[in-house]
Specification:
globular, 205 residues
């Protein structure tokens, strides 16, 4: 009995660690930082990626934490699906403001393409969330790892193992069903990554 309880605690701690370390703001921020890699000037252009991360991840997360503190939102993972759409729309407003700033700052097209792919993801997840709690963790991880492989080549295929790991953590913590995790993974890895691929080919010369 003790061994079984200990095993459950270890499993839950591992799942919690994966969920927190690879939460969408962290994963997407890293992706934005390396997004200028496909154009000349990197790593000097990472500042544009950092600017994008400020509007796409940091500011929305800060506002979300304020809402959690005020009791308007249950937690920073927005576990209540009824609260997800308004939070995501708030994030979308910040992202759109970021696009304006990036355009004014002359950001590389590769950064803008990445942000637009994120916009597509936020819009879809916000639209689906009132009816079905598709996994944002899975979508963010699958899109980021798929895009990284497309950017850097087959040597980075092992990163794809993070997709089932993060998906497993969300199911173990009972934040999502298996179907919601699979749907998020497929959406991020195909639709979001596909949008990035098309925009990258079109915008980046």
């Amino acid at each position: 009995m003790t061994t079984n309880s200990s095993s459950i605690r270890v499993k839950n701690r591992t799942a919690r660690w994966l969920t927190e370390v690879f939460q969408p703001p962290v994963v997407v921020s890293i992706q934005l930082l390396i997004s200028p890699l496909t154009q000349p000037g990197f790593p000097g252009t990472m500042g544009y990626g950092a600017l994008a991360a400020l509007f796409v991840c940091v500011l929305p997360l800060f506002l979300l934490l304020v809402l959690v503190r005020l009791g308007r939102v249950t937690d920073h993972h927005v576990s209540n699906k009824g609260q997800r759409a308004p939070v995501l729309l708030m994030a979308l407003a910040s992202i759109l403001a970021g696009l304006v700033v990036l355009g004014a700052a002359g950001a590389p097209e590769s950064v803008v393409a990445m942000v637009l792919a994120v916009v597509a993801g936020v819009v879809v997840v916000a639209g689906v969330s009132p009816f079905w709690k598709i996994s944002g963790h899975a979508a963010a991880m699958s899109s980021s790892t798929a895009i990284t492989v497309l950017m850097l080549g087959p040597a980075w295929f092992p990163l794809l193992l993070l997709i089932p790991a993060v998906g497993w953590s969300r199911v173990v913590l009972r934040a999502h069903s298996v179907a919601q995790v699979v749907a998020g993974s497929l959406f991020g890895g195909t639709v979001m990554a596909g949008i990035w691929w098309v925009l990258q080919g079109w915008m980046v010369v």
